[in-house]
Amino acid sequence: xxxxxxxxxxxxxxxxxxxxxxxxxxxxxxxxxxxxxxxxxxxxxxxxxxxxxxxxxxxxxxxxxxxxxxxxxxxxxxxxxxxxxxxxxxxxxxxxxxxxxxxxxxxxxxxxxxxxxxxxxxxxxxxxxxxxxxxxxxxxxxxxxxxxxxxxxxxxxxxxxxxxxxxxxxxxxxxxxxxxxxxxxxxxxxxxxxxxxxxxxxxxxxxxxxxxxxxxxxxxxxxxxxxxxxxxxxxxxxxxxxxxxxxxxxxxxxxxxxxxxxxxxxxxxxxxxxxxxxxxxxxxxxxxxxxxxxxxxxxxxxxxxxxxxxxxxxxxxxxxxxxxxxxxxxxxxxxxxxxxxxxxxxxxxxxxxxxxxxxxxxxxxxxxxxxxxxxxxxxxxxxxxxxxxxxxxxxxxxxxxxxxxxxxxxxxxxxxxxxxxxxxxxxxxxxxxxxxxxxxxxxxxxxxxxxxxxxxxxx
Length: 459
Ligand code: GLY
Fold this sequence. Notes:
This protein has three domains: 18-109, Rossmann fold; 139-203, Dna Ligase, domain 1 (2-Layer Sandwich); 208-444, D-amino Acid Aminotransferase, Chain A, domain 1 (2-Layer Sandwich), CATH 3.30.470.20. The chain is of the alpha+beta class. The strands form six sheets. Strands 12, 15, 18, 20, 23 and 24 form a six-stranded antiparallel sheet that branches. A five-stranded parallel sheet has the order 3-2-1-4-5, with helices on both faces. Strands 6-9-7-8 form a four-stranded antiparallel sheet, sandwiched between helices. It has helices spanning 27-37, 53-56, 70-79, 90-95, 97-103, 117-120, 122-133, 146-156, 182-195, 260-281, 313-320, 325-333, 373-378, 413-427, 441-456; strands spanning 18-23, 42-48, 61-64, 84-87, 107-109, 140-143, 159-163, 173-174, 199-203, 208-217, 220-223, 228-229, 232-234, 238-241, 246-249, 286-296, 299-306, 348-356, 367-370, 382-385, 388-390, 395-398, 404-410, 432-433. It binds glycine (GLY). The site of glycine has 7 residues, from loops.
């Protein structure tokens, strides 16, 4: 073990310096790293593909490694006597890093390879819901031919087309949004079938999506505040899907367009899924679970599971999380976390990502911009670095993906969102854009009205 608990005292404050490993280099990992670095006991060692200046500046060690080079990652942590590792990216989890770390006696926050199929294989996820739980899925079909696809689309009307494996949140296309009609849907399915043996088609459901994330510790589901992610590239949910342009949450951890019962139903599904998954794999789940849900006219539907913290959601929750996260992660990874160990500040949160104009498309030119980090902290906000290179004191170069995010905490999302917009308009980072409607008051009110209408016609 890389860190020692001094037996003379039961107080966690008496732990020798904990060497904590972190895998990943995005905004999610910068938010996790900042929170871990608040702990005076923690020393952070990072395995990441690219250099994230924000993470590197607070880490004791930083190794550039491929995110599926499991042996390289484990060896790096072993060499540095790291005792506990938090894994950010899904690709590393799905490749089986947790099994490898545990085999070396290193504690890990994350699901095992078998458990990570919940995110890595959407057909397994639908199978688990249908066969072991019996509720929660929209109508779906795994199709292996255009003929099957056409028959399902004709039976459903509009559908959502999902590649079965990982797509970084950008592979899903929806009829009526990115796919104009059945012909466009079928040609996208054809394209996917050229490199995949099957494609998942799901009934297109209408309602409001929300993110319910939880710490999962040996069957216990310890929820985080409900958040809403803005997945589309532009205001008004226009354009392609992205990794997520921004998120907000309310101080009470709920959402004005959701009832308490709807949130409880989401938590019930998380509990049932974890019980089924632990039974199916014979292993306790110790990590994060992220349910992306929608309330529809027929009730709650599970859109997707992720076996990691979401991004941007990780930025909200790590900023809201109270206490020492090094201690929390150690308890989580050793099966000892309880509800009482997890507290969030009773505040609202808003995250807005800045992205290159051309995102999520391929960038056709360099994006150099100026942004003074001090101005962000002076305004009482946090700057999270993601896909960006620091080239000078206030100079940056945006890389291909989401560039950086501004995170704010306050009394309620709308006022916070306005303040963040005003700050971004003042900073004017050249070539970057963001979504103004994240946390916007009218946007939230429209959602409340929409859900009232939907509930009024519930079958
Ligand atoms: N917020 C979406 C994701 O992390 O996949």
